[in-house]
Amino acid sequence: MGQDFLPRNDSEFSLWLANFNAVVGDNLAALGLSAADLAAGEDALAALRAAIAQFTAAQAAALASTQSKRMARQDAEEEVRALARRIQANPAVPDSLREMLGLRVRRKAIRRLIPLSPAELVVTGLDSGMHLLRWKSGGNKPGTHYLIEARIGPSESWTLIDVTTKTKYRHTDQTPGVRAAYRVRAKRGDRTSSYSNEALLYSGSQA
């Protein structure tokens, strides 16, 4: 199928139709047409030109409206970002309120420190019946709890005797000459380390 003789572009078609009508008007008799035929073509041209003008105006208005909307959005974003920065910088604003505002809440990563085994546990016995225990933290952070266990005399069972955050402990009211064994482990939250070395003692001696 051959290409249509009418221009596809509206403006070009309008110019083409104006020329077509002008030639028809100059050659009515030769073309076998009447003034009424020419009037119909002129009316069609006038309607087309009016529609093109209306469409062009609408396009311009749409472009202006789009630009106006874009600028309004930009201004609104700048304003709300400035307010959001102030809110985010205020430590007194709770996270729950930030969430209600639709702002990002920075979740703090909770580091669950794994407790490490205490090291180099030693015990010294005094004639007064006091056992002095000392050990090294083994790299545990301050505030770590140390669980002290003892096995006194012929007992085969370990007994928890105390908990402390220090790296030394006094076990009082012990009977001189009775064998005592000690071990310590660290605790943070619900996690506990493996045990330290065992320290043995007959009251009055050190192991």
Account of the protein in words:
The protein is an alpha+beta fold. The protein has two domains: 78 residues; 84 residues, Immunoglobulins (Immunoglobulin-like, Sandwich). It is built from four helices and eight strands, in the order ααααββββββββ. The strands form two sheets. Strands 3, 4, 6, 7 and 8 form a five-stranded antiparallel beta sheet that branches. The longest helix has 55 residues. 11% of the residues are buried.
What sequence of helices (H) and strands (E) makes up the elements? Answer: HHHHEEEEEEEE
Number of strands: 8
Q: Whole-number radius of gyration?
A: 48 Å
Shape: rod-shaped
Count of helical stretches:
4
- Kindly state the percentage of residues in helix: 25-40%
- CATH homologous superfamily designation of the largest domain: Immunoglobulins
Query: What is the beta-strand fraction?
Result: 15-25%
Briefly note the CATH topology name of the largest domain. Answer: Immunoglobulin-like
Annotated CATH architecture of the largest domain: Sandwich
Main sheet makeup: 5 strands, antiparallel
Keywords:
alpha+beta; 8 strands; 207 residues; 2 domains
What is the topology?
Elements: H1 10-26, H2 28-31, H3 35-89, H4 95-100, E1 119-125, E2 131-136, E3 145-152, E4 159-164, E5 168-171, E6 179-188, E7 191-192, E8 199-202
Antiparallel strand pairs: 1-2, 2-5, 3-4, 3-6, 6-7, 6-8
Helix pairs in contact: 1-3
